[in-house]
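task queued by scheduler; priority normal; single chain, no ligands, no partner chains; default sampling; output format set to structure tokens
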Amino acid sequence: MADPAKPGDPARPDALVVGAGLAGLSCAAFLADAGLRVHVLESSSVAGGRARSWADPTTGHSVDIGPHVLLNKYPNMLALLERLGTADQICWQTDHLLTVLDKHRPIRFKQARLPPPLQYINNLGRVLPTVPLHRLLTNIPLTLRTMRSNPADILRLDDRTGLEHLRANGVSQAFIDWFWASVAMAFINVPVERCSAASMMRVFAQALGHNDVTFGFPMIGLSDLYVPQTIERIERAGGRVRLDSPVAWLLREGERIRGVKLADGESILADQVVLAVPPTGMEPLLTESDRLSGVARQFEPSPYISCYLWFDRKLTDARFWARPWSPKEFNTDFYDLSNIRNADTGVGSMIATNIIWSHRANDMSDEAIIQATLEEISDFVPHVKEAHLLASVVHRIPMSVPCAKPGIETLRPATTAMPGVYLAGDWIDTGLPFCMESAVRSAALAAEAVLHSRGRPVSLALPVPTPGGLSRLVSRRGN
């Protein structure tokens, strides 16, 4: 067993970060840039966590754990990529917002340069064949109420489901099925009848106030966006990223945490410890008496399945299209990476897809999932049936994000967990949905807290999106 390094020992890190996912590596990089020597401890053999990529063993092409999308209104992730020098590796879809395949009819949604939330009015003619005007109009009272709400108003909706809130505000079932069911699944990864109304309406409130939202897609593997760059910064400042180093428990001195003990018995001391692990990984690190242990147990994973398919020919010029959510179908979003990536993706189209809230596919074989995916691709690209499928792979991911069920927003913990311990991860209280932006903002908040405890106050976290246009004029200010 290694002896723990004592204060003043050059081998002793200034801070420890447990977890080498997006939040952990970002936090460690922020601290390293501030001159701290940080050790990052990761239980698995690879860094990147739920935002990683690797070379597919069959094709050799880079595949992500699952397709991820960036938003131009989320500044923390973009600022991180600027800091790391990879911001130019995002392909921004600026010609239109998105394409939705609705009953075999592709609808290209565009934003008009009108004061928010009027930016979508130019899509009315495209939508009316599917949803009659009187059904669409039932969403207006809810929209006005949301525009007038401040964050505290929205948080108070955490005691009910999204579906309950929509019905209470008079939204028609037809519009719920067509619009809200897909919004909940796409942004919350939980069905509308199960998700927190607060989680769902916060996304809606933030989206209402902008007429220039743009989706971005990584042109390289997710890991290549940030993993080697953050590790280089950490090591340059004298720190380390240690893989295959699971933490068994926290070392305590009275009420304060003084370090960690690894599963192999090694003890590592540090004045500050950042826990950058998902809630499902918190319990082994904590005792029953720790309030955080009980909080973490309330967070459940939302699973998903991603498919990658390689074809012998180009199938489409589209980068991305979506399908309305239906429990009777599977994939909700599709990406032709041959129109996005700047590296080799094969001789034809390389298509990635997501099955969100994937319980309905748990008992299906990989082959059956691929066949169902091919059928759903053919709805958008009928001539896929003439193409030859060269290779395919199915990724089954236990957790995309935590489930935003009723009550969970109120439970999201603050950055400072206990003396000497700070939290980072998308599940922390960041004012954002569970996503990469939340992970990076939490990392910045944790780095701020660590530096503040060392007498070095600094501002790293950028604010959450605030509404503009008419939304800004009618919204109630305050928390």
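post-processing summary
- The chain has three domains: 15-48+226-300+406-454, 63-72+302-397, 112-212.
- The chain has 15 helices and 21 strands.
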